[in-house]
Amino acid sequence: MFYASSLAVNPTARHLFYSNVRPPTIDGIDMAELFAEWGVECVLLPISWRIPAGKVHAWANQFYIFEILDHLAANKMADRFMLLDNDVIWLKPVAGIEPEIDRHGALTYLLDDAVYGPDKTINGLSARGMARFVCSHGGKADDIVPYCGGEFYAATCEATERLAARARELWPEIAEQVPDAPREDGHMFSVLYALDGTEIGTANGIIRRLWTTFHYHNLSPADDQLTIWHLPAEKKTGFADLFKQLVARPGLHPSRDAARMGLTTANYARLMGWPRRRPVKLVRDLWLKIREKLGR
To answer: Shortest CA distance to 8 belongs to which of 252, 279, 278?
Structure first.
């Protein structure tokens, strides 16, 4: 429900949906038609940035975002761009972010060092491994390269052109999966930022990866100060519930009818379990987890 939440607080922003296939029909709702009603432009791009089969066991299509960067850089559609995963929710307008993009060139989301330490292997590569790759390509000989999340990209057109060009230069070695090569988008962005000398952590007051699993829960009351919530564990629960709310009232538009559609921080908090699950959500999420364990 990325687009609905963004349209609610960014009604005049240009919204694009990138995919290699036409948007599907979900629960009887033709998403392509819905996007057209909402003014979201659909851009179909094939996947060519893909690690060959056998080189990695997962994340083979994680580099599609660099297909998109190439497209943005080549078409120069705006002075600045933002790319986000679809499992995010917008709480506040983008206007507060734009001056920061202009000031830094590119904003970066540094993941928690306490969780992602220098020797921890993250999807097959550590911060020390990324540092070795950067050093072998002309970067500073640092001990580590800080790990930045791939769910958030925000940069000027100029910085995007520069980063996209560097990504193309590195791609043959990444596709081949030479030692210490990036294996997913977070690795790749971290390496690109290191090679470009980008300041790290400038988006940490804007977005945060919020985990709501029974195994790991890192939500905080201070999260209501953020502009964007990233909720990867809520795809089958909170986001599904929000989708049902939205489609239950056809004909409404997020830019005009945000409150009537439930596009409010209070409703997001209830559905996503922030800062803690309410009893109804707790019971339902627990039941879904049990069913998943039982394979039903």
So the answer is: 252
What does pTM read for this prediction? 0.95
**How far apart are the C-alpha atoms of 106 and 137, rounded to whole Å?**
21
Give percent helix, percent strand, percent coil of the chain, each to the nearest 5: 40, 15, 45
Closest CA to 63 of 168, 136, 147, 165: 168
pLDDT in tens, the chain (296 residues): 899 999 999 999 999 999 999 999 999 999 999 999 999 999 999 999 998 887 776 656 889 999 999 999 999 989 999 999 999 999 999 999 999 999 999 999 999 876 777 889 998 999 999 999 999 999 999 999 999 999 999 999 999 999 999 999 999 999 999 999 999 999 999 999 999 999 999 999 999 999 999 999 999 999 999 999 999 999 999 999 999 999 888 999 999 999 999 999 999 999 999 999 999 999 999 999 899 888 86
Cis status of the peptide bond prior to 275, with omega within 30 of 0:
yes
> What amino acid occupies position 108?
T
* Burial of 203 from C-beta contacts in 10 A (0-12 / 13-18 / 19+): buried
> What size, in residues, is the chain?
296
How many Cα atoms sit within 13 Å of 220 on the Cβ side? 8
- Starting at the earlier edge strand, list the strands of the sheet with 228-230: 88-90, 228-230, 207-209
Would you give the distance in Å from CA 25 to the centre of its chain? 23
Map tokens 């049902």 to a residue: 244
- Ordered by where they begin, the domains of the chain are 1-15+69-296 (3.90.550)
The owner of tokens 């596709």 is: 175
* Encoded tokens for 54: 């056998």
